[in-house]
## 1
Amino acid sequence: MQVKVFGKLTSVWMCRLVRWVLSALFIWAGGMKLVNPQAFGVIIGDFGIVPELSVMPIAIALPVLEIIVAIGLIFDMRGSLAVITGLLALFIVILVYGIWLGLDIDCGCFGPQDPEWRAFNGLRSALYRDLAMMASIYFLYFWRFRQTAHAQAEVIRNNR
């Protein structure tokens, strides 16, 4: 029973499902931010990490990058998973920074929302969500490693 469950968890369809869900989340998040880049720029500025002049270029470029790499992840294009991993790691660091400072702001993860509505709990729940998404990324890397290891083992077996 355990082997069957593990086999299903590591099937190509499970990998595709995880990739597609992760891609959909990034496309949705990027699209919601592009709907109102000025409001997203305000959220970026509230974190106080980047200079004021770079807030609006980041508020436009970041969602566009999210959408482009998410589309790349749908089609399993080389490098897209690495960029998504980097973006998510950056988002996690920024959320931890905001929680550490006790910032009472919206995370801006899925576009501008009412900052007063979720406030500080929004940063914590966003961190937990991002950590769950990072776990799905680790699954995708594990799946790739496992496929590569199986392919190499098959080559070795065939060369004997």
## 2
Amino acid sequence: MVKVVPYLAIPNAKAKAALEEYKQVFDIEVKMHSPFEKESGVQMGLPENYDWENSTMHSEFTIDGQVIYMSDHTGSGDAGLQQISVLLEIEDKEKIEKYCANADSQGWTALSKLEKTFWGAWFARYNDPYGISWQFNFQEESYNP
């Protein structure tokens, strides 16, 4: 069995702030947060005056038990690294409504507001302030094209 874990790379040393934001939107559980140590951070190409105290070398959090990793995007050695879109398959309408309301209240950009789709799902898509695109999907009815 292979376990796939999304790994979010947040630019501008904002991963720790993103964790706090995600607590408000998704009620995440932070399993671990590890800041950069100055010596190793400098070796990875970070500047001497980096905000070490608020940095994130690696973090792990869960949304309803699903694991996601996240770190500050250092830009060192990973020029091909791109941010990703995360799709959350949500098990009930109440929860998708809650996530959308939370995203709205945090000022996230709604790319598509919550609506019933032709594929029988309730769906919404947002961009958070950290450059990550979030898709929320609650499959209410089966879809057979």
## 3
Amino acid sequence: MKNNHPIDAEIQQYALLRNECNAEIINHIDHCATCKLKVEQYQLLFSGIEALDAPQFDFDLTRAVMTQLPAPKSKHEQFIPVIIFLVIAAVGCPVFYVFGKTFLQILSNLKGILSGIIFLTAIVLFTFLYIDQVRSYKNRINKLNLN
């Protein structure tokens, strides 16, 4: 016989599935009044839980959850970054054509790689900021429409 009592998980296993327990645990519980009392308490608890009715909601849970989920993106929203790039290119090309010589003179006075990095960084930063502003605006509009 063991000097230490089994842990609660072993006592619960004994209360539910006695045949699957270790022989040492079965022997201890059969001879220990404290552990037998715990087994009886767990069996009473388990039978009480089984006797409970399944919970029922007085509202449509599926509809309540589905209204909280974000709407799937439409096929048109997937092309927004491409459209933004095309608009920037459509505006940027004529501006570069008109002011290209002046712009190139300004850039030629700076070192080539440095000016290219500055220009590319500015374009990328502007694009990301613009996309972020558009998404933020759409989120605010959607929140207003939901309320």
## 4
Amino acid sequence: MNDPARAATDSSDLSGFSFRDSSSNPDTPVQQPRLWCGDGWTARVLKNEDDDGWAVAMIKDGEPEPALTGPWTMGRDKKNPKPLDGAAFSTLVKTASEFVRRHEQQLHAALHQSLEVDSRGARVTVLLDIVPDEDNPYALLSAQDESGVQLAAQRVSPGFKLSRASATAWADGGFLKP
């Protein structure tokens, strides 16, 4: 796809497309009917190639891919998209920011788990921290006493399942490799 005008409207291929003119000042907001930049985000209205509708892609400045892509409203002529405006852009920024925040929270929750268990008459917090390295992923299983002092740490498989039973068994077993 060598035609830049086509690349700007093709919703299926956003790779290699700069959402901001490289010669423009990144602090200067762009406010055009199909392109709106500001607050660290860029909104671009794109032709939906799957049907007769339009879509809007929200990309966070510095990111290679859109954080969120969704349908966009048709204009009054039922042919062209409704132009972007300040209110719509603010709503899109809020929605995209919330989407990114929820995704980051879910990722953090999946990678960092903890449980409190009773073992040998004491309260122990068992933590599992997964390191999703592309070449060598692993997890670190650790235990802390009530004051936060580390009692043990073991490197385990990233597929290790932390449950109340596995945490209690590990603590009761003297923190030997599970």
